[in-house]
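Budget justification note: compute hours in this period were largely spent on complex prediction jobs such as the one shown. Inputs:
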Amino acid sequence: MTVTTVSPPPPPESRRQRRRRERLAARDSEIPVELYGLPRGTVGLLTTLAFGFALFTLIPIGWILINSTKTQANIFETFGFWFASPFEFFHTFGLLFQNVDGYGTFIQWFGNTALYAVLGGGGATILAALAGYALARFRFRGSRFVFYTIIAALLVPITALSIPLYLTYAKAHLINSIWGMVLPSMISPIGVYLMRTYADISVPRELLDAARIDGAGELRIFFRVALPLMVPGLLTVLLINIVAVWNNYFLPLLIFNINTKYPLTVGLGLWSTRAVNSGDANLYPMLVMGGLVTIIPLIALFLILQRYWRGGMLLGSIAN
Amino acid sequence: MPAIELENLTRVFASGVTAVDRLTLDVDDGEFVVLVGPSGCGKTTALRMIAGLEKITAGTVSIGGQVVNDVSPRRRDVAMVFQNYALYPHLSVYDNLGFALENAGVPKAERDRRIRAAAAALGLSELLRRRPRQLSGGQRQRVAMGRAIVREPRVFLMDEPLSNLDAKLRVLMRGEVLRVHRSIGAATVYVTHDQVEAMTMGDRIALLNGGALQQFGPPAELYARPVNQFVARFIGSPEMNLFEAALDADGALALGSQRIDLTRRPVPGQGTPGQAVPGKQAPRRGEPVIVGIRPEDLALGAPGAPGTLTAEVRAVEQLGSELHAFFSIDARQAGDQTGGASDADQDAALPGQAHNGVARLDPRSGIRPGGRVTFLVDPARLYFFDPATGEATGWPAAPAQAPQAPQATQQASAGAGRTRSG
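Corresponding output:
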């Protein structure tokens, strides 16, 4: 008695068609907003609030975009939300590659930031994935203690640690070392917390049991079975960590006193101080342009990673 | 030498609950053993201990004559099919099947050959490039089996592999599982809560309750010679009728206000005296006893004839091929000494469900609820149990119709087919 219920393979479907089908299916499975049972007018009110918030966050970006095209005089003298001639965008952009007054070049700081972000953010993500998975899926002595310690660490502001941190660094010869920047960046309590939660919901215990029965070692199980299922959560944590390192101002300010090691944040801060103090002719346009170039990689990263934020990773694995 | 031996296998959870209590059994090479019992009876825990996925509190698990208590699952040479399939969602069917071989370092060409052979055996050849999400439930189930058989394991474990399939597919897959089992010849332990699956599939059945083994033997034996009330009630569908009764001084069975003369043969030419249970005191005259009557052993008889039982019909279930008449007599339904009240007991306590017995009758018998009906009781088909311990003290006569019984019970509860083998 052989079961021969092989259905014909579905017609080939392009990626775009699949996206469209999934989007439509998602829409069909949603409850229409009229059925939420909200009081009249609530939806309109919430929509207005959301728009207001979006405006609030987008206005500074708009300002920086517009003013990156202006001369220093125009930045101060013309209306901030409209363009003015001359169009100085490319001229100012070119200045970013120059060493202004021996303070170091923007492009070098950019490279530093990228390096710190990749090493620190990437390292933090890998560690968070390992730790989160272990905390979610293994019972070991002290596992709860470790987890609650991590939660507690979320609550401690780094400023409170500045003096002990600096003293430790001085002893460990980590002042002006890139490891001084990278190592602390690799510790991400929020990342561990998120990965633990995500591993808990996305990696079924039965799948791990199956892999053990199938003869896989624990490391192999992690990389071949668990990690692929944790990818959406992993990317979220990666983004959070990269943004955190990218925007970190306090830590590099504390540990670097050679301006060729500065990341963007500290470098721009240096320019800013100098612009205020010296009234130098052309530092403000460079500051604005520097700010713009600083945020572009993060926006790009977000847009690239966004397509991986897909649910349904487990579809078909577990019957229920 | 048995392929698997369990000796006094015990698992006590941290909460203090004893999930498996001194379980001892053995599975021969090529044998298909079913672990069955109500939910929470410890059958899955026992299976997981064999697999190495669960801590062993006491006792030993041996595979191939070797104690494997401290051997990790990947070194035990066991394959397992999980209740929820547990397929790797991000891998194709091909890679799902090949994962274990990859782990074992099987060369690529050999791997490919074995994957394709297993896929062909299970009708998966067309699906090798698909992901689990693109498969139907039955196909996923077959991939889960395929993943286990490519390994050519010594021991094959299955944890309720069919419970997520619809009734029709389940019947089909039963045959499929047996076919695969016969072709690979590995010692198989199959866990289910469904007595129909147990009866139709097992070479031997191990019936568990509350973590303890109740009886271990071929299906027909559990049906015809249950060691206690729990086994008697669990095996067979509908459940065996159990009543509190007494043997009076002249050997008649006092069942409520009615008497059934056990010395008479109600149907000429049929029925011989029942068997005694070895090592047990047979029911004695003048003492209370619990009597068990299988629903299929009740037949309609003429009112007032000797050896009959009169009952009121409360409800009727017409199944087409047979008819279940739920009746009530004034004897008390026997409780369960071995555990808490069964589901059936609790259901029977519902208002409007005031029946305490059931008979399986000819569908054309025209029985209607509300009427009175007379059953012929064959003394040779009665089961007797000790009211204090629930242990069997008397069994039906030896040339039992038991070999037919599995079919009958399967038919009764699945209703979809009656194939015993594939």
